[in-house]
Structures are given as structure tokens and as C-alpha cells.
Fold this sequence. Notes:
By secondary structure, the protein is mostly helical. The protein is 59% helix and 0% strand. It is built from six helices and no strands. α4 crosses α6. The chain starts with 6 loop residues before the first helix and ends in a 7-residue tail after the last helix.
Amino acid sequence: MRKVLSSAAVVAFILCSTSGCADLDAARTATISQGCQDAISDQNKTWSDNDASEEKIKESESKGLDACKDLDEWSTAVSYNPGSVGYEELSVEEAANSVYLACSSIDPEHKTPVCADAAKRGYLDES
Length: 127
């Protein structure tokens, strides 16, 4: 079963990606810890599994948001594993812009290190 995103989330992501999300603290390439790399690699495997349930996908995404220390580390790891968020190719900045989708569905209260950092840096603003 594939994860289905709401139309509003997809439109917000497209607008954010194409506009460059002005006034954001741009994501930077970061060194990836083993824990973050393992979590994002597992997330990539889960997304690639056509039989993975939505619950399993959310669980693996949650682990990635929790294992990575901040937005830079997460977006760097995701850019090396674009299948972990359903893409074939993704730059670090594109990965950072996609954090909105992950945080809004997995961690709307921004309690994970990645979502807390993304919120602080303006990546989760809905305006």
C-alpha cells in the first residue's frame, strides 16, 4: 500500500519548491551519523516495499526524523537516499523543502530534532 498525500500538502510542497521558500535558512550538506544513515536507509527500503503498510511507512519516517540531529543531517541523508521520501533524485535543498510533508504527517508538534530545527528555520511555515 502506498502512502497517499493530501492535495493541499502536495500543492504546498510544489509551491515551496518552485518559489525556493524565500527567507529560509538554507539547508547545508552535513556529515551523516551512522544512526541517521541507518534510519534513512531503512526508510528507503520501506518506501521501496510495495507491500509496506502506511503504518509501517510512518513508523520508518518517524525513526528518521528522530535519529537525525537536525534538518541539515536529515536532508543530506535523504538526498543520498531519495527513495526514502518517494523520489528518484533529490538535492539537499529539495530534500529540505520536502521536510514539510514528513513533519506535517508524522510530527505536527515538532518534537523530533529534525522537525524542531525545520520549524525554527521556517521550513514548516504554512504561509
